[in-house]
Structures are given as structure tokens and as C-alpha cells.
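Note to self: keep these together.
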Amino acid sequence: MTKKRALISVSDKQGITEFAKGLSDLGYELISTGGTKKALQEAGIPVIGVSDVTGFPEILEGRVKTLNPLIHGGLLAKFDQADHQKQMEEHGIIPIELVIVNLYPFQQTIAKPDVTVDDAIENIDIGGPTMLRASAKNHQYVTVVVDPEDYPRVLTELNMAGQVQPATRRKLAAKVFRHTAAYDAMIAEYMTDLAGEENPEKLTVTYELKQSLRYGENPHQEAAFYRKPLGSSFSIANAVQLHGKELSYNNINDANAALQIVKEFTEPAAVAVKHMNPCGVGTGENVFDAFTKAFESDPVSIFGGIIALNREVDKVTAEKLYEIFLEIIIAPSFSEEAIQILTGKKNLRLLTIPFGEKQKPERTLTSIEGGLLVQDQDRYTLEDATISIPTKRQPTEEEWAALKLGWKVVKHVKSNAIVVANKDQTLGVGAGQMNRVGAAKIALEQAGQAAKGAGLASDAFFPMDDTVEAAAQAGITAIIQPGGSVRDQDSIKKADEYGIAMVFTGVRHFKH
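Structure:
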């Protein structure tokens, strides 16, 4: 057997010269390709080229460099098996005990706004994944390193024991297969989109660990938070936390719910969320006015809630926010005075999200035991709807404003859902009930006297006229709902009986 040999071929040069020098000092012969070889040579580290090992030049614009039996024989051989040793000697194959490879920057390439298809295709690595998978398969004999964060650990074990421990080799091999699977998943997603396939026969997705969580929905459940590579920047997954303790599983779910609602509004708006349902939504001339209305919508439920605002938090708004116990405040930004005020509460989380970013369409994934449900996000708005007004009376301008606000909010309330609203704030929310009139009674009871002259929004049609009757008794004067029930005429007749204006949108917004 010759001296120990290591193969190095990396796109990410972070820490590679220091690592390579450590290997060289330990007696490893280094072989490398292209830019990596040049970097090592410039650092004064002895290195030989892959072409010198294979006796074959790099060809096809560098597409073929390492795809050669003299390389892959050295990666896949069982070093202690006699027939493998014999074949290696016959063919002049030298074992490669250590492989340090990372891949062409496909993700970084397709992230560029002006990327061309040709550029993306050229950044699909072939030789790199092949070497990684071969080495990881043969990890009983070969140490394979794909992550620069693992360089120190490998050097430490080599210096202390003369070899990398079997348990470490297995962990590194597992990381390689996760890495190549994620790499291929990104390529598969890109190519699937390019080909226009909507529901492919295989769905491959990949996510990166953003943080481990203290626990899940309850303390006895373990949990973690993963982020989609190149996912929407206009999301909780890409929020910047300015202050406060670590987000919990429930915090993240609630914060996402609040953000999705506030995205519905272009005017200054504030949304308060508890348990993934809005407890108060307000709009106004400015952020202070909007938050004041959201707070007044339900000053009880907002306690311990999550607030999302679509304008910078200024001093006067921060002072009002400070008076209330809140878990999270989400905004595009916070003024210096607002930060000074709000950081006075050490546990209050302050998150910023780039509201100016264009919304990136994504599909929602919902796990069930043994499977996954996939659907488009519900981006349907009133501007997309085919509006009809089947009642004798049409909504007034003020009623239309109330109905529009209610319709924006009810889309994000757990079904069965009813929202009572006026032109600039919610007044009552009925969420997650087993029947629609039950949701209506909750929303109307919460609204109380404020329901008189207000609008009512429903996420789905009325199967009978009892919801209209309850609304009328509470003083509701306008209703917006999808329509489409076989008993629509009953609801229309009841609305006409009470002089209620009713709008049909033709589209439901179930949220389970």
C-alpha cells in the first residue's frame, strides 16, 4: 500500500487550505481538480491533479474529470478484502481514504433573478454527487466530508487516533446522503417547474434546519423549525428577530397566521391573533389608529397574543403596545424610539419582515399520518370573484367597506367561520364551529350592540336561513357569502324580509 491519499474538490473554499495543510502534515497525498488544485498550490500545499492520476485529461468543458475507474475504484474498494486488493493491484488503483467534496452552487445560481436555463443546467453537478455517494456507501473504509463545519472534528480525530472513528464516519456518510438528496430535490423542483408539471408522480421537497425548538404544541412533544431554501422572503421563516426570547412552535404558527391576514391589506392595518385565529383586525389612517381599532375589537382575547402590523412601529404605537402583554410584534420595521420602548420587556419578541418584497407563490403542504396533502395557497380575492346581489337591496358604500374587510379576514378564520365587521375593524369572530349558525352566534354575541348596522361575512354558504335570522335579530344590515346552497332562496327571502343586503361571491374559503 502506498501513502494515504485524500481527494479534494470543493466549490465552497471556506477553510479548505487550513484543512488541506493539516492533512498534508499528517502524511496524506492530496489529489485535486481545477480551482481547488490552484487554491492549494497558491497556498504552497503539495497537490497532484486528478488527470495525473487517471492519465486522462479533463474533457467536455470540464463536465468529465473524475468519472474514471482509477478514481471510483479507489473510493469503492473494500480495502481489507483480498479479491478487491488483487483487482486494485492489477489495474493500478490506489485507495482513497478521505474525500472532501462539495457541489456546484446550483441553489445560489437559480437564486439569481437573471439566471438563464443554460446557466442553471451547467451548475448541475454530476461528478461531485457521484464521488460523495460512492464514498458514503463505502464509509466503512472511507471518510467523506461535505460540510466545512466538520473539518476541525476530522483533523482532531486523525491527530489523536490516526483515523476517523467509525461512528463519525457513519454520521458524515449520513450527512452526505442528506446533502445529495437535498441537492437533487432542488434540481428536481427546478426542472419540474421548467417542464410545467403541476402534480408530478413523485414529490421531492427539501428544507433546512432554522432552529431546534424547546418543544412542540405541548411540552411532551419534540419539535424543530425548518426553512425552505429560496422560499418566500415575505414569510415568518425568513423573519429577522430583533429582540426577545426564542420563538416556540405555537408562536411560529400564530405569527404565520397573523402575517397571512395582514398581507390582505394595503392601507395601514393591524392584526391580533390567538391560537391561529384573528381576535382583532383594524385599519386606519396610520398604524396607531389601526392598532387601536384592532385592540378595541377584543381587548380580552388580545392578552398574550401576536400582533402583525404592515407599517413601521413608531413611538406612540410602541407606547400603546407596551401597555399590553403580548408574545410577538411583527412589522416591516421599528423606529429607534419604538425599539427603546419595547425592548424594555425582555421576553417580547420583535420580528421584522420585508413587506416590500413581492409575494412568492408557494404550495401549502399539510402532513397527515402516512401522507401529505398539497394545495395552492388561497390567494383568491374579491377582485377575482364574480359578484352577484340576489337581494332587493344593494349594500351602501359603508356596508361595502364592512363586507370587504370581513371577507378579507374570514378567509383566515378556522371553518366554520363568521366575521362581523364595520368599515375599519372586526367586531366579532366565530371560529371553528361544527355548524354555521353556531359560529354566527359566537361572532354576534361578541359584537354585541356594535352589530347593529354592521356587516357579516361567512366563509361558506348558508345551508339554511337560520344564520340570516340570527344576523337580522342582532341588527346586521349586510351579508357577504359564497352562495351555492340548494336552499339559497330561503336565505335570500329571509334577507329581503329584514331588508338585509346580501352579496354572493361564488367562492368559498374553507380553512381546516
